[in-house]
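Researcher: We're teaching a course module on how sequence relates to structure. For the next exercise, students receive a sequence and then see the predicted structure as tokens, so they can try to spot secondary structure elements on their own. Here is the exercise chain.
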Amino acid sequence: MTSTKKTVLIATVTLVLAGAIAVAIAVPLSNRDTLLDEANSYLDEEPIFDGHNDWPWQLRAHFNNAINEVDLDSDLTKIYNGSHTDIPRLRQGRVGGQFWACYCGCSSSGKDAVRQGMQQIDVIRRMIDSYPDDLAYVTNTQEIEEAQKAGKIASTIGVEGGHMIDSSLATLRMLYKLGARYMTLTHSCDLPWATAWNTDNPTQGLTPFGNLVVMEMNRLGMLVDLAHVSDKTMNDTFEVTRSPVIYSHSSARFEKCDSLRNVPDPILLRLRDNKGVLMINYYNDYVTCEGSASLSDVADHYDYVKNLIGVDYIGVGGDYDGVSRTPTDLEDVSKYPNLIVELLRRGWRGEEVKKISGGNIKRVLKENERIAAELQKNEKPDETWIDPALVAGPCRTG
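Model: And here is the predicted structure for the students to work with:
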């Protein structure tokens, strides 16, 4: 073969290989663009309704809740490190509903937790009121639908930790009146009436007073949130609740990550029977039990739960701004569409992704409202006080 022919042959092969590589790259990118368009179309119909976002705690940590001069409709990554949430990214992420977390640490339990809780509800309400073009304060499913039809992010409140009621059913009722629509029974600490996931007393769950807390929440129409609680507290709650429960930010406990913060199979089966919803958490440590995680790892949790109990009992509970490590391609609230793309790529149908994006949590909210209306026909507010001996301490006077 002459050198000229060799040169022509080599050039031809090189062009063919380059073309093949270009096609190999372009086809997946084209497919992803198509799936992203499809994902966004579903999210336009049923936007993300996330179960737990700790942005209000970041407002406390960075600004002492002094938000009057802070532009929350701007890129907050330029103001403080590790930011997961601001209004532009919420819009980019197709968020249409959010439980904003009213959180204070366990160190306040039995001390000033109620005060701190009031401060956090105050900053949530002021945050919502300050951005009426984007956020709408809501307290029921009708208001959620109206806000979303108006193109706003339906915003409500979840109390992250029963220490903020200071073992008082009266305080629980006041939190409901102030807009709280769920309460996590415990955070990462035991209470006089319930145990947490990291308890030293795994055989103890709800006490008789804890049962009353759950029943009063049912009567109010306040969602019972089992994120953070012990397995025993979970099981005890399923014995007493009259309404569907939620896990506002918990994942599945299986071989990918067997953290006690996640939910094991037998309890997931009880959740299915209860017709509640598991809103899957995106914290790396609860996704893979390691410091790193990926979008695919999160999708594995969705697949696992779907295969075990079905798609009707799964939701979104990113835990953004409450965790230090988030998965690749799910780094902040702008990335929710990536999850839908991945699920579609795995064969999930449009109606299924719309259930997890918002349909399932709306169903649970509506059913809690219906049951509460029935209970209130025959039940009066519970006036029981906890045994004073269980809460005695220097910070209590009566």
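Model: If you want an answer key for the exercise: The radius of gyration is 24 Å. The first strand starts at residue 48 and ends at 53.
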